[in-house]
Write the structure tokens for this entry.
Amino acid sequence: MAERRKYGKKYCKYTEMKIDFIDYKNTDLLKLSMSERGKIMPRRLTGNSKNAQEMVEKAIKRARHMALVPYIVNTQNVTDAAYVK
Amino acid sequence: MSRIKHYETMFILKPTLTEEETKAQIDLVKATIEKNGGEISSCDDMGTRQLAYEIQKNKRGYYFVIYFKCTTEGILEIERNYRINENIMRFIFIKYESKKEVAAWTKMSEEAAKKAN
């Protein structure tokens, strides 16, 4: 018998918010599907719907190209940012 | 014959330019769009922002967004002009084609127009 999961059921946050188009300029929306290191989270972890995942993928890639969102956050950059503050 | 489509373009200008120079650059881009049969519906000035990573050793950049309608040939010509321009660090063109996307486009351009006023 598999162990019972301790966390609640996953659901698509974008469907919940009734968003039908994800804009690449809206970085707050994109961050819902990104890891702390700036990677795109898989659907099996976030619970996004297929439709939303496809849109968010495209939007993140566009935002990365325009330097709105980082490609990768490495430890060097993290310490640098802390240093500036 | 090519149809008129909905487009959005965003570009990042160098942060080293003075205020007048950035204004001149933006006007130049607008002029090239209009010259190539484009019809600007609204603009969004996002100002100077921190970049997520360094581009050409610059940590900041001036972002500007233009929503417009244009033909396919016009886009090619505008893109060629972008590539020649040394002050533009990065640019992107996005085509809004399906019904849903065009609806998003009109909504965003209206919001930008409201913000500008």
